[in-house]
Amino acid sequence: MDKIHIILAEDDPHLGFLIKEGLEGEGFVVSWFNNGQEALSNFTKANFQICLFDVMMPQMDGFTLALEIRKIDAHVPIIFLTAKGLMEDKIEGFRAGADDYLVKPFSMEELLLRMRVFLNRNRKTTPSLGQQQQQPIGKYLFHPINFELQLGATIIKLTKKEGALLAMLLQEPGMLIKREVLLAKIWGNDDYFAGRSMDVYISKLRKYLKDDPSIELINHHGMGFMIQVKTA
Questions:
Q1: What's the CA gap between 190 and 123, in Å, rounded?
Q2: What is the distance, to the nearest Å, from the Cα of residue 69 to the centroid of all Cα atoms in its chain?
Q3: Contact between 196 and 94 (Cβ < 8 Å)
């Protein structure tokens, strides 16, 4: 089996060395860069399965790096490794395209567990809907296999979380899907920050679907979400 290739952007030489050594000891291949610009320049030179980004780095910070990576690859998991643990920092990270947020100091065991959530998820296909080539949503077509929304000739690339969230909601259109079910299946936990992250992704899906007013993505506060398409 091919080894998993990780891209690490971390400007602290001591921490960068420890992370690289620890992950390589677990069988991963790690490409380590000490600033965001170098990481971005090298991102397309290998098939990276996970991105580990510090936030505060010279030349290009981690949030900007994540935004640039998302222009190239909408699906690769991005985990921030950072000392910036305030709530607003985490929300900014998720808005930049992060899939997870690990506050320093952290243990190698915790990092490995969080990475394996994404690696295991990537081995699975989305049930039932994931086997379909496309599904109509009002004026849109949703392509669950490659995480794309299509409106006429316009293609909107979704991240894996956006695609998985939309796929789950479309499994039962017009039915409420509980928050805890969505969080457990897509985020792997239902803590506060995962909940805020999901709210950000719901807002993004609303924005993507705004060109068809017949589509409603409804939030039942504290309970869950549902998607429905009004018929004339």
A1: 22
A2: 12
A3: yes
Q: How far apart are the C-alpha atoms of 23 and 108, rounded to whole Å?
A: 8
Q: 29: part of which helix (H) or strand (E)?
A: strand 29-33
CB atoms within 10 A of CB 127: 11
Q: Residue 101's pLDDT band (boundaries 50, 70, 90)?
A: confident
* Helix, strand, or coil (residue 229): strand
Tens of pLDDT, residue by residue over 192-208, are 888 898 999 999 999 99
Minimal CA–CA distance to 99: which of 160, 20, 143? 160
Spatial CB neighbours of 151, under 8 Å, sequence gap ≥ 6: 139, 140, 141, 211, 212
pTM to 2 decimal places? 0.57
Amino acid at 190: D
